[in-house]
Amino acid sequence: MKVLFSFPGQGAQFVNMLHQLPTCEITSSILDCACDTLDEDVLLLDSVEALQTTRAVQLCILITGVVYANILQHKGVHADYSCGLSIGAFSAAVFAGALDFKDALRLVSLRGELMQRAYPHGYGLTSIQGLLQAQVKSIVKQVNSQQFPVFIANYNDEDQFVIAGSEQAMLKVATIAKQSGARKVTKLAVSVPSHCELMANAAQQLAKAMQSIKFKLPQISYISSNTARLLTQPDKIAEDLAYNMAHSVYWHETMVSAYERGVKLAIEIPPGAVLTGLTKKVMEQSEVVGLSQLGIEQTIQLFNILTKN
């Protein structure tokens, strides 16, 4: 039986998320490592004020993902595939064994700072549900301009997309989308225009910083959510991580790829459970669960039942 661990992106964060991690030796060890590596108290990163910054959000999501994935693995739940959306890709790469956790902390810290400096205000992400891809593309093309840029950032489902760009442009797209029959339009808790060409310069700077980082062959298969492909070479994984902030996310296609590879159990690692709903639509004959919803012990029980069968 093939198992997938998926790691969410920005928007899944919540206040005190690091303080609510399971109390155990794994959590303590990972938090201590993060504090030593970054030379700061990471438990200060999950306050209301701190989570207003992109750097703090991304570090919290990275740390949370690594903690829970390691706890599951320690308790005997082993994954065959690892995949993450946006910042979640760093957690996925660490868990897959392609990137050292200390290096990931430094890179994510820099990533958050670069993204935040590039667009400190007036930009972000908006989710659009209920329209087909052709409709969303048409609206975005109609609105996009050099002064007020907007792009499709995430292709999450056949009728669920995320746009990235200026507040003014996103508002205009949202208005037209509602008039065109969109079921739901939501401004996301992300303050930067991720996964579009607006992040190209920041991605290039991150790529330069990665040149001094040693990536390794993954021990768990790493699937890119930007290409929906399995990446096995360290340099390709490094490139994927460096530029994922500037490339669109194809989550639907990525889950189709994982499903076709025989995944029978997909576990979304905290925080959040947004990916669980999206993945269920693809893996109709597999078990798809969010660890934050099901809980560690019940997830272990489910894994044991499925592996016995």
UniProtKB/TrEMBL annotation:
Its EC number is 2.3.1.39. Pfam families: Acyl_transf_1. It catalyses: holo-[ACP] + malonyl-CoA = malonyl-[ACP] + CoA. The keyword Acyltransferase applies. InterPro entries: Ac_transferase_dom_sf (IPR001227), Acyl_transferase_dom (IPR014043), Acyl_Trfase/lysoPLipase (IPR016035), Mal-CoA-ACP_Trans/PKS_FabD (IPR050858), Malonate_deCOase_MdcHsu (IPR017554), Malonyl_CoA-ACP_transAc (IPR024925), Malonyl_transacylase_ACP-bd (IPR016036). Keywords: Acyltransferase, Transferase. It is an enzyme of class 2 (transferase). Residues 6-296 form the Malonyl-CoA:ACP transacylase (MAT) domain. Belongs to the fabD family. This is Malonyl CoA-acyl carrier protein transacylase. It comes from Frischella japonica. The lineage of its organism: Bacteria, Pseudomonadati, Pseudomonadota, Gammaproteobacteria, Orbales.
